[in-house]
Design brief:
89 residues, mainly alpha, 5 helices, 69% helix, globular
Length: 89
């Protein structure tokens, strides 16, 4: 089977965490446009990296976002938005 399921899980988690990051750091896109990534790195260090493997994925999601579990909807919204722009859907 390979690692494909973990890629998908990482993609799903990334959008759920990104939504929270935007709530915590509203001007993050503007920082990116200036080539500034320090605030994002600090956010990751504080919210994710410092915990290592201390928590399950669901527990980490709950601690960071307040959601009860991993949610696919942010990822599905991103995919729909991305491909609608590309293919005019």
């Amino acid at each position: 089977m390979g690692y494909f399921p973990t890629y998908t899980l990482g993609n799903v988690l990334s959008l759920q965490f990104y939504q929270q990051t935007l709530q915590d750091i509203p001007d993050l896109p503007e920082q990116f446009s200036r080539g500034e990534f320090g605030a994002l790195l600090a956010w990751f260090k504080d919210k994710i990296h410092r915990h290592g493997r201390k928590f399950t994925a669901n527990e980490l999601v709950r601690r960071i976002t307040g959601a009860d579990s991993i949610q696919a909807q942010p990822y599905l919204d991103y995919i729909k938005r991305k491909y609608s722009e590309i293919y005019g859907l």
